[in-house]
Design the sequence.
């Protein structure tokens, strides 16, 4: 059972899932996560979180955002991930209940592996011709991390709707 309330995940999902899919798409097509998408994700939490969570819990979630943003900036400075990835992860952090962090990290690891393998296989096969202009096909060793980040948040919320408190 996940700590996220099922009703909260159910309210977040209709607004967050399209943003997650858009992040997957734009990162694969342009190797870019737009600032508008990150701001939209943050606004969804700002409104929905305020309506769905107790005030103290809602305010503490902004600590999640700050911690993940600082870590993301450090990882970006080290060349580990892109700035859009860091900003998206920070905007996604308030949606995650702290008690679910261990589960989320395992989910992210599995999703990252699946996304990486799937992307590399598609890139090396005729499937690539379905979207020949996508920048991620010719990005060398770079990987569109938004595919894994967006997928992880989407899966977490869907699982939260099913297995949440």
Sequence:
């Amino acid at each position: 059972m996940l700590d996220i309330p099922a009703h909260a995940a159910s309210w977040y999902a209709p607004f967050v899932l399209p943003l997650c899919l858009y992040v997957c798409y734009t990162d694969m097509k342009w190797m870019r996560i737009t600032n508008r998408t990150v701001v939209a994700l943050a606004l969804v939490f700002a409104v929905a979180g305020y309506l769905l969570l107790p005030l103290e819990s809602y305010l503490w979630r902004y600590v999640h955002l700050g911690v993940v943003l600082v870590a993301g900036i450090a990882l970006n400075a080290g060349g580990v991930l892109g700035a859009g990835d860091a900003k998206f992860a920070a905007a996604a952090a308030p949606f995650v209940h702290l008690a679910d962090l261990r589960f989320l990290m395992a989910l992210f690891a599995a999703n990252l592996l699946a996304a990486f393998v799937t992307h590399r296989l598609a890139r090396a096969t005729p499937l690539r011709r379905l979207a020949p202009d996508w920048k991620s096909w010719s990005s060398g060793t770079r990987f569109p991390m938004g595919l894994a980040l967006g997928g992880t948040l989407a899966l977490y919320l869907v699982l939260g709707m099913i297995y949440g408190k």
Q: What stands out?
A: The mean pLDDT is 96. The two ends are 7 Å apart (CA to CA).
